[in-house]
């Protein structure tokens, strides 16, 4: 009886294992998601985010781990290509993590607002 329960628990714990990458996704039309951003540290993509106002980006708090200062990159459909006409790079001036987020290894309260210095 206990062996069956142990096997069942093992199967259930591995059933929810996440795969890397996007599964079953489709390539978006270029520049059809102008609110999507790439958060970068020293020119390397760290996390994604969403522009929710011209001066604020919503992202995960764990994105800040070992990656400050951050730059917000807007208008880039393909990060491997240089898109000078549409690409904008904006510096993060302040970050606001959820006050109950404590550890980068935990996903509880894993939310953060980034304030950017957007100049028109």
UniProtKB/TrEMBL annotation:
<feature type="domain" description="Peptidase S1">
    <location>
        <begin position="22"/>
        <end position="120"/>
    </location>
</feature>
<dbReference type="Pfam" id="PF00089">
    <property type="entry name" value="Trypsin"/>
</dbReference>
<dbReference type="GO" id="GO:0006508">
    <property type="term" value="P:proteolysis"/>
</dbReference>
<feature type="signal peptide">
    <location>
        <begin position="1"/>
        <end position="17"/>
    </location>
</feature>
<dbReference type="InterPro" id="IPR009003">
    <property type="entry name" value="Peptidase_S1_PA"/>
</dbReference>
<dbReference type="InterPro" id="IPR043504">
    <property type="entry name" value="Peptidase_S1_PA_chymotrypsin"/>
</dbReference>
<protein>
    <recommendedName>
        <fullName>trypsin</fullName>
        <ecNumber>3.4.21.4</ecNumber>
    </recommendedName>
</protein>
<keyword id="KW-1015">Disulfide bond</keyword>
<keyword id="KW-0865">Zymogen</keyword>
<dbReference type="GO" id="GO:0005576">
    <property type="term" value="C:extracellular region"/>
</dbReference>
<dbReference type="InterPro" id="IPR001254">
    <property type="entry name" value="Trypsin_dom"/>
</dbReference>
<keyword id="KW-0732">Signal</keyword>
<dbReference type="GO" id="GO:0004252">
    <property type="term" value="F:serine-type endopeptidase activity"/>
</dbReference>
């Amino acid at each position: 009886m206990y062996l069956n329960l142990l096997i069942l628990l093992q199967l259930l714990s591995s059933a929810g294992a996440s795969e890397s990458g996007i599964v079953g996704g489709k390539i978006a039309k270029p520049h059809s998601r102008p609110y999507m951003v790439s958060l970068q540290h020293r020119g390397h993509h760290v996390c994604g985010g969403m522009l929710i106002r011209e001066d604020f980006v919503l992202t995960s708090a764990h994105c800040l781990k070992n990656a400050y200062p951050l730059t917000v990159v807007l208008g880039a459909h393909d990060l491997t290509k240089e898109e000078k006409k549409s690409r904008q790079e904006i510096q993060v001036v302040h970050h606001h993590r959820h006050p109950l987020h404590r550890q980068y290894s935990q996903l509880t309260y894993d939310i953060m607002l980034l304030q950017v210095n957007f100049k028109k």
